[in-house]
């Protein structure tokens, strides 16, 4: 069966490494903080000026004074630090963030990402995503494989305004784990119970499929 948002977050948490500084975008990426493996230590950063974000708060436990760059309420771990946006973006632009996890509306097979604007809808700008995709060397996208109409979000070319060019390294969807390299999508893992044919049908871009595609291992 396809993964839900929590399943996607749990799978991305497996990509964390001890000592990483990690930036989490709004939406599904924020949930990754709840599933850090017990044997490692990572620090979550938000571009509005916090290093040391904790778990995503449960309903009723929110503190309105603690928010991330997307104005979502967050928690802070003991020892967390707060600083101005200039310092935060200096950290990002200086390549001091080892992993960035973002949501997306579309990803192209060459690694382009569109995650900030739908034509005709008013937005104030793409915010810190522009700096994140321009500076980070390891960008994982967390998203559903298709949109609400059932159309693929993994495309040959993005149709929406781009956030960044040739920057996405890996995608984790409700159906699969996909690596982006050599101008194509490379299938690495499939969600439990999901077939390779289902993933092929849901992928509009070029999909490279190896002889054996293992199922994701998601802990309860």
TrEMBL record:
Source organism superkingdom: Bacteria
Keyword terms of this UniProt record: Transferase
Protein name: Succinyl-CoA--3-ketoacid-CoA transferase
Residues annotated as signal peptide: none
Gene3D superfamilies in the record: Glutaconate Coenzyme A-transferase
GO MF, any single term: CoA-transferase activity
InterPro entries: 3-oxoacid_CoA-transf_B (IPR012791), CoA_trans_fam_I (IPR004165), CoA_transf_AS (IPR004164), NagB/RpiA_transferase-like (IPR037171)
Lineage start: Bacteria, Pseudomonadati, Bacteroidota, Flavobacteriia, Flavobacteriales
Coiled-coil segments: none
Family to which this protein belongs: Belongs to the 3-oxoacid CoA-transferase subunit B family.
Pfam families hit by this protein: CoA_trans (PF01144)
């Amino acid at each position: 069966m396809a993964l839900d948002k929590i399943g996607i977050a749990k799978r991305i948490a497996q990509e964390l490494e001890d000592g990483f500084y990690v930036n989490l975008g709004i939406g599904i990426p924020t949930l990754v903080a709840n599933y850090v493996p017990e044997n490692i230590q990572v620090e979550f950063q938000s571009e509005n000026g916090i290093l040391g974000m904790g778990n995503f708060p449960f309903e009723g436990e929110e503190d309105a004074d603690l928010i991330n760059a997307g104005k979502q309420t967050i928690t802070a771990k003991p020892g967390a630090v707060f600083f101005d946006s200039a310092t935060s973006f200096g950290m990002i632009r200086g390549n001091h963030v080892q992993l960035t996890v973002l949501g997306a509306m579309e990803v192209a097979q060459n690694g382009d990402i569109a995650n900030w604007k739908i034509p005709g809808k008013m937005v104030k700008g793409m915010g810190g995503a522009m700096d994140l995709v321009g500076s980070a060397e390891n960008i994982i996208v967390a998203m559903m494989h298709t949109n609400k109409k059932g159309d693929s979000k993994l495309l040959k070319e993005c149709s929406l305004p781009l956030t960044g060019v040739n920057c996405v390294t890996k995608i984790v969807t409700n159906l699969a784990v996909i690596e982006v390299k050599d101008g194509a999508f490379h299938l690495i893992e499939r969600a439990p119970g999901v077939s390779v044919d289902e993933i092929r049908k849901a992928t509009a871009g070029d999909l490279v499929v190896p002889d054996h595609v293992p199922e994701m291992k998601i802990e309860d």
